[in-house]
Specification:
By secondary structure, the protein is an all-alpha fold. 88% of the residues lie in helices and 0% in strands. It starts with a helix and ends with a helix.
Length: 60
């Protein structure tokens, strides 16, 4: 993937970028409120949810 494709992906899919940034911020907040292990657990759950959403969008 070159820079032009990445630029189009980021700016054409603003909702996707905002969703991923929101997930990362939630994981960071959980890490700061509890400890790093719960933050990593939250990040793992969020990655699984994103994978499920992508799979559902593709119709698989």
């Amino acid at each position: 993937m070159n820079f032009t494709n990445l630029k189009h992906f980021l700016f054409d899919n603003v909702q996707t970028v905002l969703l991923l940034v929101g997930f990362i911020l939630i994981a960071i907040a959980i890490s700061f409120l509890t400890n790093i292990y719960y933050g990593l657990l939250a990040l793992g759950v969020e990655c699984i949810l994103v994978a499920l959403m992508i799979n559902y969008e593709k119709g698989g």
